[in-house]
Amino acid sequence: MAELVFFAVPTESDKTLLVWELSSGPTAEDLHHSLFTVFSQFGLLYSVRVFPNAAVARPGFYAIIKFYSARDAHRAQKACHGKHLFQNSPVKVRLGTRHKAVQHQALALNSSQCQELANYYFGFNGWSKRIIKLQDLSDLEERENEDTAVPLQKQSLKFFCALEVVLPFFECRSPGVGMAEEPLEKLEEGPLSFLMKRKTTQKLAIQKAVSDAFQKLVIVVLESGKIAVEYRPCEEITDARTEEELQDLIQISYFSWKQDGQGEEECLSDLSFEEDEFKQPELD
Questions:
Q1: I need a surface site. Which of 7, 120, 185, 214 has the fewest CB within 10 A?
Q2: Contacts of 201 (CB under 8 A, 6+ apart)
Q3: For the RRM domain, which residue ranges apply (predicted)?
Q4: What is residue 245's DSSP assignment?
């Protein structure tokens, strides 16, 4: 059975592991490093979070680990439960349990997380981005009459970016758009500070466009381990801006590709648990 991996924050319980019976000897930072080293062997991790045990329990830590892939999380749970791993005593590992059904929109990954996920599945040379348009929408003009000039503190830098993410091996292109705005608050703002803010705003607009482009892609991981890509322009991912707000600025043609002989896969369920629904297990 194929698995779908989205460019969205993983919230499903079958992608989340609870690890407890962690020793109180190492620091939380050391445990974080050790857990990341061990569990990243099974697949790409979204996050590793380490927490101290409750005051009523014996000293120690527990951790919540999130994978992008449910298949990787299952393999990690089976391989690590009851094993010593990096400490003298065995650890306990279980998959997250859902106590209540919660429907919500998927949260988009940021640009760096999208690129990390793409590098993991497609390889560093398996994708690229092409900027189509980077437009300055800033309104920094001062009127001739100084009395009616727009105060600098109310002005801002604003950039719009349109680009496409290209997957040459899959003959797939995904367009993305992003807009970023940076306020200019100080009257004494110098030219160097202005140029740095301008560069930062441009970079942020590009990052948002990259994230937007990846949200339309779904990685299909087949049982054989082979990878396919599905393009879904109508995926609902929560973001700061929608394409409808930007459609007057630029129009981009959509390209899609679907693997021959493969039917469209069912979407993974939105239903997930909240992290605080994890109750610390009773200690023997």
A1: 185
A2: 157, 158, 159, 180, 181, 182
A3: 15-98
A4: G
What are the residue ranges of helices labelled H in the chain? Answer: 28-39, 70-80, 111-122, 191-215
Contact assessment for residue 210 and residue 198, using Cβ atoms and an 8 Å cutoff: no
Phi, psi angle pair for 280, to nearest 5°: -60, 125
State how far the Cα of 40 lies from the Cα of 11, in Å rounded to an integer: 18
CB within 8 A of 7, min separation 6: which ones?
108, 109, 114, 117, 211, 214, 215, 217, 218, 237
CA distance 193 to 249: 28
Rounded to 5°, the CA angle 247-253-257 comes to 130
- The secondary structure of the chain in percent helix, strand, coil, rounded to multiples of 5, reads 25, 30, 45
Averages of pLDDT over runs of 10 residues in the chain (284 residues) are: 93 93 91 96 96 86 96 96 93 79 72 97 95 88 46 75 96 95 71 88 96 96 91 63 42 33 32 39 43
Q: Which two tokens stand for residue 5?
A: 């991996």
Claim: this prediction has a pTM higher than 0.90: no
CB atoms closer than 10 angstroms to residue 133: 13
Cβ neighbour number for residue 12 with a 10 Å cutoff? 18
- Supply the DSSP symbol for 68: S
Q: In DSSP terms, which residues pair with 237 in a beta bridge?
A: 106
The structure tokens listed for 111 are 């640009």
